[in-house]
Amino acid sequence: MFLSKLNIDVTSREFRRDFADVHQMHRTVMAAFPQVDDEQPPRQKHGVLWRLDPSQQGYLLYVQSRVEPDWSRLPQHYLTEPHQVRDLRPLFDAITGGRCFAFRLVANPTRAVKRDEKQQSARAEQGKRDQPRRVVHRTPEAQIDWMIRQGERNGFVVPAGRNGRPDVAPSPAFRMQGKTYFGDEAQKVTIDHVRYDGHLIVTDPGLFASAVRDGVGRGKAYGCGLISLAAAR
Predict the structure, then answer these.
(1) Cα torsion at 67, 73, 75, 76 (round to 10°)?
(2) What pTM does this model have?
(3) Splitting the chain (233 residues) into consecutive groups of 10 residues, what average pLDDT does each group show?
């Protein structure tokens, strides 16, 4: 696995275009990876996850992938300095049971809500399936509960901090919007990013390594799910 660090030039016209359309941002990231000729989507095939972190100069773009990307395909003047790529093998070697890490995750914490009869009828008239709609968790308490449930599914727990509360702090990052297309039909995409900073303890190394490799939660094509780990503070 590889992790790329790219210092974005926020004056770049192409970046401003991407920031205004999260689907276009996804396409710009994926342009650095080879095309695939099987049925698996390229993002999943190459294990691509990305995240935008605000910095003093603008934004840092982190991209994790199974194959080494070719960033020469980025638009000219997209970056302020040469990209950096590092091998994540030492990180995965450090994932052991009981190991405590500091972590950062940008996620799209949501819950499924059943549609009412009027909404179900409207979708039926449009030939759409009756699927629950996704609702974003807005309160810190619900966002922390979501994080704890992700730990139960992905081989880690969030320990208690000095105040006895879960040692994780959610904070609203930014909203990204865009459009994706199914045939000729455009569908609006809205991703409310929530940034989590805190600590975790590995309970199942294999399951947790899979979560680090494949990402956590929904919206992985749109800047969510990439877990960054560091030595516990």
Answers:
(1) 120
(2) 0.89
(3) 97 95 95 87 94 92 97 94 96 97 96 76 70 85 96 97 94 84 77 95 98 95 96 87
